[in-house]
Records
---
Amino acid sequence: MTYVSASAPGKFVILGEHSVVYGKPAISVAMNMRFSIRVKRSDRYMVNNQPAAPYNMSPHMRYISDKIGTSPVSIYVDGRVPSGSGLGSSAALSNAYAAAISCLEGLPTDEESIARLAYEAEYAAQGRGSPMDTSASAHGHAIALNVPYDDEDFLWHIDNGERSWDISKIDVPEMHFVIGNTGIKAATGPLVEKVREYTESSRFASEIIEELGDVALDGMKAMKNNDLEELGALMTYDHRLLSILGVSCNELNHMVDAVLPYSYGAKLTGSGGGGCMVALTDRPDKVSKEIRAHGGTPYIVKTGVPGVTVKMREGDGRNRRRWRQKKKGAPTGKSKE
Ligand code: MEV
């Protein structure tokens, strides 16, 4: 029996969420929380040993299955990226599933092919949005969108007919980030839609989008100069701008304010409305304590992680026990993001 195992990381955004949807610059970093998937051919769709009608699976997985035209598979999902939290769980799921199914069907599994297919799945499921999360998860490490880059750093270009993005790899200097999860789940689609309505009806909101893009460009310069003070200040300013756009919430604002005395800067990360904030700090323990004191869950994240990985093997069942153990407590493969 042929098995395919694939995995892809979640991500956080240093600068540029929401404005990236309008083709503005952004910086995103992959982190050490991954979505792992294992598939094998089956006579019907199964997810973690439970029968799953295709219409019952996540829309991302359904889109990828339909697009590739695969026959039914049995899928084991082990998602370590919290869903609906702005950490790119649906992008990681889409990348891992796209890589697994592509490999099973003998299709290309290079980072770019997977990033494109996963973005199509995200776009179909979410209605709008940029290829930031799917590209960050496919490439791993760190990426920038629509910033000036050297030729050797160019990764790929993606457009959706309305907007286009040049995606390049970037070096992130040695920095410590702590994520704070409010535990409030918020879907990306409605927040992107809220910003669209605001932007289309208010010149003030579209000026904020422009400003968010400029802040991301300044952030790139600060990173190149290893200027953590400047980068942190830009992150905090970015949070204030996102709050004015209406995508923050009290819990995020309180957590950001609480960690600022121990951080270079802090901001919400991802689509907002709940979900997570991120702090740039050299006092991760103190920041984690503050996050906990404000009702959140801290993650001291590691960066510099690989993107999508995929491996096909002929199984003799020896690894099954490990997967059975892993899947305990794992989600069903339905991402809420
Ligand atoms: C990405 O994590 C969040 C948004 O920028 C949406 C997108 O880029 O697709 C809000």
Note: Residues 2-324 form a domain with the Ribosomal Protein S5; domain 2 fold (CATH 3.30.230.120).
---
Amino acid sequence: MTESNFDQFGLDRQIVAGVKAMGYTTPTPIQQQAIPVVLEGRDVLGIAQTGTGKTAAFMLPILQRLMKGPRGTVRALVLAPTRELADQTYDVTRLLGQHTRTRAVTVYGGVSKLRQVEALRQGAEVVIACPGRLLDILADRDIDLARVEVLVLDEADRMCDMGFLPDIKRILQVLPRHRQTLFFAATMPDEIRKLADSILHNPATVQVGIVAPAATVSHAFYPVEAHLKSKLLAALMQATAMGRVLVFTRTKHRASKVARELGKLGHRVAALQGNMSQNARQAALDGFREGKFDVLVATDIASRGIDVTEISHVINYDMPDTVDAYIHRIGRTGRAAETGEACTFLTPEDEEMTRAVERVLPEKVERRWLEGFDYDAPPEPKGLPRPLGSRQRQPGHAPHVGHGERAQRREEAPRVGGRATNPERRGR
Ligand code: AMP
């Protein structure tokens, strides 16, 4: 197998150091396609969702461009629909560019304008902005966009959905006509296609088709605080009839821990993670395939070799890092004519990835709360480990996954997906 890595792009050493610091080893498909053409200076029409690695796909070549040329003037402008996406893009830019002396500033509504203007006065090469506040600052003449060399429209379709099209057009008027434009959208309805056609010159189209997951899989999200995940897993497995179950965790350590905890509760369970010897991994896989274990707790990387049919449930104990990984994970269930269920635990921090996952699924995913489960239990005091699931349900309580009143109440509770609404979105 040819190992593909980031050296192939000829990026500056300082930028590659940032890539390493982020822990990226292999470019994602959108990065593989987009980085070379963006480096050539071409306009790009990128059809890709959040979760595909598109931020680095445009930001790495931008950082490469910024290594040469003047500092302290705005040379790259990224327009984003929401402050969450702007913040996320800012974080990636700062980390990837940590050895390059590049300065990035975010500009969006709902927070102090003065602070943003002061940050701009100190000089930045990259501005990541939501359209509303940017126009506001432009009107005050507190930003100069006359030397912008690259414009990125990120989630352009969502910006249009949110009514930002007139704002975008006004911003385009103050940008130099001679520039590179990178246009990203997850979907291409007519209005977006027209906008792209009107601003891109001879663009290279890059597209990552996220294959829609099998229709035989039903999806459910279980909102839960992070400290209650183990208990919820134990309770869910007790309350639901499951066949073969594959549980995914983000880290190797957690895979082992969750497997241990389930084992203590009497489940026939094995872990599958990268720290295990090849023999131990094979034994876990064989045991799972042959029915010696009903539950396998795996990390994404370790799970690559799993080819076991008849998996009834995939449980995402941790939300995966990318939409691709979600599709991959749940591709393990609902194979052929069988049906399967994908249950994903959602903590409030998973909100952005949740939206990204929902965008590739045909319908909004049902939020479920397990009846009888104590969602308000406080974290265990440190040093007093309590066996997993020891307190999860009143004896004799019928196991039942409810979507009734309690679910309704939880839907309204600010703690579940309860971030403040985006002020850029309000009143527009
Ligand atoms: P994005 O689509 O840009 O929001 O990226 C989604 C997630 O994938 C982020 O958490 C990135 O840090 C991560 N990511 C991006 N590129 C890579 C890569 N080449 N390898 C591993 N993770 C990546």
Note: The two ends are 51 Å apart (CA to CA).
